[in-house]
Amino acid sequence: MIDAEKKMNILIPILHYPPVIGGFEIFAKNISECIANKHNVFVLTGKVAGQPDMEIKGNLIVRRVGLRRLNDLSQSSVFYIVTTLAAIFCSAFMMAFRKKVNIIHCQGFFSGLIGLKIKWLTGIKYIITIQSADYSTYHPSFSQKWLVKIKMFLERIVYKQAAVRHAVSNALVEYYAEFGFKDGIMIPNGVESDIFKSAKDKKLLRKELDLDTDNLLICVSRLEHKNGTHDLIKAALSIKKEVTNFKLLIIGGGSQRKELETMRDSMGLGREIIFLGDVLHSDLPKYLSVADIFVRPALAEGFGIVFLEAMASEVAVVGTPVGGIVDFIKDGETGLFCKPNNPQSIANALIKLIKDKKLYDNVVRGGIELLKNKYNWDAISEKMEKIYRLAIRRKVLIISGIFPPDIGGPATILESLSKDLVANGFTIGILTFGEKTELDNYSFSVYRVSRNWWGPIKSVVFLFEAFFRVPNYDLIYLQDLYLPGLAGFLSAKFWSKKVVSRFVGDWAWENASLNKVITDDLLTFQSKKYSMAIELRKKIRRRVLVGANVVIVASNFLKEVAMKIGVKGDKVQVIYNSVDFMDREISSLSSKSDLRKNLALGGLIIVSAGRLAPWKGMEVLIRAFSGIHKKISETILVILGDGIEYNRLNKLVEELQLSDCVKLIGRVPRELMLQYLKSADIFALNTNYEGMSHTILEAMKFGLPIVTTNAGGNPETVQDGVSGVLVDYNDVGAFERAFSNLLEDKNILERMSEASFAHSVNYKWSNVIEKTTKIFNNL
């Protein structure tokens, strides 16, 4: 991925390029010239008679390739098209490596096929621009034939694989939607207002061009069925009955020219209608500048850039309400509509403009204002540059079992991570469990699989979601190693996607410990053999970890565990959690005294938080507290969390007659948990398994001295004797002594409080983002 300032290398493969003129060609020429002011642009196109094979204009290189040169600018033979496209593909493939191309901008279907093939071979992304859609209208002889069906099948593939789908009109955005792609981006063609302008003396210039008449109508069009020129000639017969002095100048060539000339002559319109044939685009301004009305009654139109060129020339325009024309003709404001396939409607619109001077002046002024606000090439090229950068953005699908509105630190962190990855130039998608919610108003996509389905069905649905989502992303980031993680991993391997797995704990060990099947610690668990069910869970998480390209862990302790599982050390990256992103949450909290009053707390408060699981050892904390409470009666122990140990612990509190000073609060929302932490004096955690306790970091952010075990990743977080006290797991006496030392000596409490907060500053969110983006970019 490249940053917003770095120069890009952009490749544009296109069959035709000026002097061949059409919507694609004008768009490609102006975009390439504007973009080349800041970036390197390489245009690969077909050879044309009289044009050099290579043109270099600053950062723009135009190279013409192929076996033959094009002599007739209005049409190309099948041989020319096939051989030239093959030559463009070969040259584009070699240039992709030599010029280190960042993005390929494909112009239309044939160019898109080239981009698709190069993407498959090199991995370089492409964007697709379309300027026309209705193939059957453009080529009625092929309508409903096998060729059209094959083309549409290939179109779907080309559009699906494109990084960005761009259209020059809203009608073409809808065309993308017909293929199931609702994310098309509309950026129109522009007009060269400095070239197209009204002639100062139209009458004089008309005489010079041998077009002397009171009313000059002009049609610039390829003479093909879809442009409705045959209807325009029929309309001219009706106009002749109402307007005595007019001429219709038809510029352009095509397969129907002879047929249309014969029609003109048979209708006795030889003096009124002039076929000029093809003209160079550079000569077109002088003809538009002397015209009064531009008309093209097209049956289909992807965009119709010549309408804008006519508007810029201060010429009134008449068109049909089809395709992209409706984007710029507002009937009676910027032009007039006529009905397609309706010669009388065409005639009526033209006669109306000829006879109504006020209406004529209004639509001319409206057209000029429209161009100023919307169809400027500089503004359009800036938008296209943003599209290039959007396409280059790496797309990451994050697969997790939880995501907000699920509560808990991991869900909250994942939400923050996703937002910041987007801000750092990534396109993010989240695949998770849960119900769709109105709160899913993010700058990234969130795909949810309902938790309400029966287990096996839920698993299958999640697998299918992963399978069909994964191909649309470059990188898969697994936050879970079992059902969600396995579904994502298998899908990623099938589609040959890079995988990053995040390893924050061993659920296989946790599950076996919760069910009291094992008593071994985490490290011992990795090397011993157990029941078939346990070994299956171990095998699944080993497969997901070992098969990943990179494994991210939250501590060196977890790195050691990952390596015992079988992950190579050079694949494991340590990224510590952070807590500085909590600043906004903390600033919104009330004062410590107000919070204590609201929470009905007083005295000296010890807080612990975590799942009430056997390895969290809450019983030991309660017993240690019982001893200290006898010495310091104003102490209170608050335990936040829920789990299978809750009832047993509650019974223990009653047995020890501590109901007034030990509060088993249960699971609480994050905001309430933060209130308890800010109200506390000490944070305690008795655990024999802790990869990297995020809750400890959060407690340190509030400046709480930490009393915890020297297990897992705790020694990496807590500096024994400085920011807290490390003791042995389940050592009641050690916990009691630690509590006593802190609560009985305010100097020690304050010193450790200051050190705890100072150490928390090292756990910066910016480090998490920097290291994560570096990993993603290097894959």
From TrEMBL:
Transmembrane segments: 78-97
Keyword set, alphabetical order: Membrane, Transmembrane, Transmembrane helix
Alphabetized InterPro entries for the sequence: Glyco_trans_1, Glyco_trans_4-like_N, Glycosyltransferase_grp1
Glycosyltransferase subfamily 4-like N-terminal domain: residues covered: 21-193, 407-580
Superkingdom of source: Bacteria
Any one GO molecular function term: hexosyltransferase activity
Boundaries of every Glycosyl transferase family domain copy: 203-365, 601-756
CDD domains: GT4_PimA-like (cd03801)
Protein name in UniProt: Glycosyltransferase
Organism: Candidatus Portnoybacteria bacterium CG10_big_fil_rev_8_21_14_0_10_36_7
Lineage: Bacteria, Candidatus Portnoyibacteriota
